[in-house]
Specification:
- This protein is mainly α and 224 residues long.
- The protein is built from eight helices and three strands.
- A three-stranded antiparallel beta sheet has the order 1-2-3.
- The protein is globular, with a radius of gyration of 17 Å.
- Belongs to the LEA type SMP family.
- Keywords: Repeat.
- Pfam families: SMP (PF04927).
- InterPro entries: LEA_SMP (IPR042971), LEA_SMP_dom (IPR007011).
């Protein structure tokens, strides 16, 4: 069997249906596998999400870090600052844009990135395929372009070029959930190069961070 990354497949963006506890288990398995790989190569540790309120600015800054590196950062309204609690949530589109603004955005787009973006787009829109002219189509085209052997490194398409306006480009959007994080992480893992390299992890980490932040919001709402 070839060790080369395979093209994005339809099955990558349609994980088997599962109850909430099954989705959590799947996500934990993916993240545990990633953590083990990360510890072996010493590049980074597990994902950590912190929230900092800035009441005077009427916002909350949510930061996801791994191994000392910022993987994603979101700015959302602070409840009570003239904004309903329900708006204090991060959408999949916003998570994709956040990935573009971190160090992951500087990387050339590869097949794992394209698979992760396709999974995210599908979860956001609920549509059964790639949206023509959408972020997934752009990511796939970028990955194929970057595979050209005659293309210089500085000419390659970066993740930030594809995801910089993701929230505006998506024809539909939704609040990120753990189930979305599972789908994106699984797609990235299936299409990651055999030798590692972090393909798709920036997108997967951003969606996972958004899902965790949203889950915390829901917990606070139930406890209120």
């Amino acid at each position: 069997m070839s060790d080369q990354p395979q093209p994005v497949r339809t099955g990558d963006v349609y994980p088997p249906s599962a109850a909430a506890h099954d989705a959590r288990r799947q996500r934990d398995e993916v993240l545990t596998h990633d953590d083990q790989q990360q510890k072996q190569d010493g590049r980074r540790g597990e994902l950590r999400v912190t929230e900092t309120d800035e009441p005077h600015a009427g916002r909350r800054v949510v930061t996801a870090t791994a191994g000392g590196q910022v993987m994603a950062q979101f700015t959302v309204p602070v409840p009570g600052a003239g904004v309903e609690e329900a708006t204090d949530a991060v959408t999949i589109g916003e998570a994709l844009q956040a990935a573009a603004q971190t160090s992951a955005g500087e990387r050339p787009v590869d097949l794992a990135d394209a698979a992760a973006v396709q999974a995210a787009e599908t979860r956001a829109t609920g549509l059964g395929g790639v949206v023509p002219g959408g972020v997934a189509a752009a990511a796939q085209q970028a990955a194929e372009t970057n595979m050209r052997p005659d293309l210089a490194e500085e000419e390659k398409v970066r993740l930030r070029d594809v995801l910089g306006s993701a929230a505006a480009v998506l024809p539909a959007n939704k609040v990120a959930t753990r189930e979305d994080a599972v789908a994106v992480a699984t797609a990235a893992k299936r299409n990651a190069p055999a030798g590692g390299g972090g393909g798709g992890k920036g997108v997967a980490d951003a969606v996972a961070a958004a899902a965790e932040m949203n889950e915390r919001r829901m917990t606070r709402t139930r406890q209120a």
